[in-house]
Amino acid sequence: MPIFYHKKTHKRFFFIHIPRTAGRFLLENFRENGYNIEHHLTKKILEEKDVNDYLCECQDKIENGHAHYSHYNKWKNINGLSSIAVVRNPVDKFFSSSFPLAKKYDQSYLESWINFERVFLIQTKYKSSWWLPQHEFISPHTKIWKYENGFGNNFCDWISNIISIPFSIKIKTYTKSNYDELIFKKSKALINNIKKFYYQDFQLFNY
After folding, report:
1. Distance from C-alpha of 125 to C-alpha of 20, rounded to nearest angstrom
2. In this structure, are strands 58-59 and 62-63 parallel, antiparallel, or unpaired?
């Protein structure tokens, strides 16, 4: 959930990184467009070697890189900044996130609504950012882009208009991790549970 600072123009914006919505890909491209990450408390411009430690650092058990609205709304340094976020179809986002979940639960277990609800009520109670509904990340002033609309010229124009600096996609791929592997299958029962649990995201983001 970084503040990006442009080295030449000193312009800044706030990127709300919802897990599994191309955040790593965009982070690399923001940096290739001349942006560095600014610490949200100290305003220190972070060196590249310090960025991962900062993003993974937790405050109140929440990673800086994936802070949600009720958490980052307390950060004074974001006041007045333009904020942007990418949202994703909740079904696709869920299956994209399935790698760590599959270590604990079989698919058949989560195909039961009772089990599914119990598991994710616990996850969201403790604000596990991977499983929080996407609308909990968004502020009232956030500009939203849909993952499904891609990251081509229209996206670059959209970003450029918000941050008032020409933006382009310079890195088209990113280094994948083991948690990028898809585990669960898109069964009807599991999809129905996802739609039921993340109902507000489907409604608010028109999926």
Report:
1. 20
2. antiparallel
| Backbone dihedral angles phi then psi of residue 85, each to the nearest 5 degrees | -150, 155
**Nearest to 203, CA basis, from 90, 93, 125:** 90
| Local structure of 194: helix, strand or coil | helix
* Domain extents in the chain: 3-204
As a whole number of angstroms, the distance between CA 4 and CA 76 comes to 15
Q: How far apart are CA 195 and CA 174, in angstroms?
A: 29
C-alpha 136 chain-centroid distance: 11
SS (H, E, C) 119-160: HHHHHHHCCCCCCCCHHHHCCCCCEEEEHHHCCCHHHHHHHH
Q: Say what the pTM is.
A: 0.90
Residue scoring higher pLDDT (114 or 51): 114
User: 163 CB contacts (<8 Å, ≥6 apart)?
Assistant: 6, 11, 13, 82
